[in-house]
Amino acid sequence: MMQEVISLDIVKDITVDTFYPSRNKRQATPVSDTIYTLDIETTNLFKINGKYRCFDKSIDSYKDIEKVACPYIWMFGIEDAVYYGREFMELDNIFRAISDVNITKIIYIHNLSFEFGWLLNIFTRKGYTITDMCSRSVKKPIQFKISELNIIFRCSYMLTNLSLENASNEYTTLAKKVGDLDYNKERSPLTKLTDKELGYCEYDIRCLYAIICHFREEYEHLFKIPLTATGIVRNALRERLSFFYIRKQQKLVPPADIYLKLWVAFSGGYTHANMLRSNKVLVCDVESEDEASAYPSILCTEMFPYKEFMMCHVKQFFDAKKRNSYAFLIKIELKNITSNYYNHYLQFSKVKDSIKGDTMKEKLDHIVLDNGRIVSIDETGATMWCTDIDYDILRKNYRGDIKVQEAYKSPKRYLDKEVIKFILELYKNKTTLKGIKDKEAIYKRDKGMLNSIYGMSVTNPLKQSSDFSDYWYHKDFSKEFIEDKLSDMKKSYSTLFFYAVGVWVCAFGRKRIFDILLSSHSMDRDTVYCDTDSVKFINREKHQDIFLTYNNDMIEKYKTISEVYDDISIKDFMPADKNGVLHPLGFFEFDGLYTEFKTLGAKKYCYRENGELHLTVSGVSKKGVSALNDNINNFKKGFVWDYDSSGKLTVFYHELTLTNEGVVDNTQKPFEFTDIDGNKYLCDYPYSVVLMPTTYKLGITEEYEQIINNLLWEECTQ
């Protein structure tokens, strides 16, 4: 049972051990292995008719309504002991009590971006200095340090990539309390909390402690626990690689001009709806085929750039022998191009800046768009940087004038044998250990690492340009900043992949999808929807040979790798599950048959499988399918998920904000409200984070709706 902090005498530092980050103990500050955890609960309030009240879904619009928040309880864990307090500023007493100038302490918080917005009240009032900020983007801190306290704050969400509930289920035997605390009540630090509500608060800390305890056991020391899920797989792979391999990757970090060209050439997976099938209810069999561990498969079976890119004559790009031996990074010009198919490859975002026109309306006059993908570009043209893989797809997907203006080449080959063996071992464990109770920990670990290894290949330090100093800001994206980041990469033992590898991984991923889509015009027409590594299509009997041929080609890739590396066999690519069923890496496998299907574009679709309706809409909870009342016809433009069914929250930050005009004070003004017990409470915290439920309206753009409605090509055959 957690204890209320009345006297700091009960808050004891029970350091389990200490770890020295440096071998020279005289120069290194030891890090405590005691697990400290923190969580807070807040009330979100809105000024309605002159009073601060909790969210009222009967209010038509919250646009002009003042939004504020107030913390009413904090929970702090020291190992498995849980303490709590009600007044937020009292939390600083805990920080001071555990602070030690000679031993660094680490405090874990799940979803640090939320708590950070509140902790600023303590940091600013006490004059603490935030240093060593590591953030994924603005308002997304991963780790930072308070120098005066010698305390590091870390985000456990970034470590697990899971909600607290799901992370608890994944890594512990504890279950987070769900539904025991109604968030929509006016609570203040004076509000009496029930045992059930206090239990909910306590278990948030207990679950977080158990999660971090799992990682401490695995990595032996807190300081050694990676900051992110990608860091977990990076550490595991690094142990398998030689110093010479890592040194080579460091030397491969390209100069700034090449790195930026690779960055703009990078593009993610292909997620798109076939315009011919969009906004229609398909009452027929829609088959879904998924590629097994697509990106790990690509890393194991394709050839990648492995030396620095050198500028070359464009003619070399069209030399068949050169194409077999080199990967090419190219700049192309596209004029008077028109798609040959219904599934369109080219993203508007990749050519937007090069299209003639000062305004978006002027640019759109030169193109025809299919929900963010380009159907055609007129004679004014556009340019883009891409890979040789993209060029080949574009050539098949479009007719017209596609010219190569610049070219850079790098010799290509398969990845290092140890990298491939590492990935194959992860895939084997994910496949063979699934459902085996006493192997569950290894299964979960290796499944997580397999899912994260692609992220390691595309890690781009130039994107980590945000920092904090009184307010969030982006560092000046100057030549000096870029060169400093690249210089750091050349020294870092985290540089395990040439950045070009990640760029080509995604390009190969798109190629595999388009090898399926463009295998025939009938497959192009019958494809309904694609999402990175899956294809959903109708008239399934006509297209089974396409996937059979594809999978046979994968076996040929296995054979090639086994010939290149004699201690890798074809069997390594084809592990069996506990029932003896083989699951070849990279194979397209049957993933479902839908009797109804409807899509309104990328990440917007609804389907019926085994009689049950399912929903996938970015920004709406899967549970939101209940709002459709088991009727797929309700999934249409204008449908609104209400506050209860959307599961969506809008976040408002009260803080100092940097704008083009300078720093703007958007902090929260002091306000008084009455809690549910009738207590009046004055909240004077200038920094706050307000969470407000919101609705979600299903829609499609006017251009997309117009192109669907005006489609003059053949109608859907079912």
Any key phrases for this structure?
718 residues, alpha+beta, nine-stranded mixed sheet, seven-stranded antiparallel sheet, 36 strands, globular, disordered C terminus
Brief overview, please?
This protein has 718 residues and is of the alpha+beta class.
Helix-strand blueprint:
Elements: E1 3-4, E2 18-19, E3 31-32, E4 36-48, E5 51-53, E6 67-78, E7 81-85, H1 91-98, E8 105-109, H2 112-126, E9 130-135, E10 141-146, E11 151-155, H3 156-160, H4 164-171, H5 195-219, H6 229-238, H7 243-251, H8 256-265, E12 271-273, E13 286-291, H9 294-301, E14 303-305, E15 310-312, H10 314-317, H11 320-325, E16 326-339, H12 348-351, H13 360-364, E17 367-370, E18 373-377, E19 382-387, H14 388-397, E20 398-414, H15 417-432, H16 440-457, E21 466-468, E22 472-474, H17 479-491, H18 499-517, H19 521-526, E23 527-531, E24 534-537, H20 540-564, E25 588-594, E26 596-601, E27 604-609, E28 612-617, E29 640-641, H21 643-646, E30 648-654, E31 656-659, E32 662-665, E33 671-674, E34 680-683, E35 688-694, E36 696-697, H22 702-709
Parallel strand pairs: 1-7, 4-8, 8-11
Antiparallel strand pairs: 2-3, 4-5, 4-6, 6-7, 9-10, 10-11, 12-23, 13-24, 13-25, 14-20, 15-20, 16-18, 16-19, 16-20, 17-18, 21-22, 23-24, 26-27, 27-28, 29-36, 30-35, 31-32, 33-34
Helix pairs in contact: 4-5, 6-16, 9-18, 15-16, 16-18
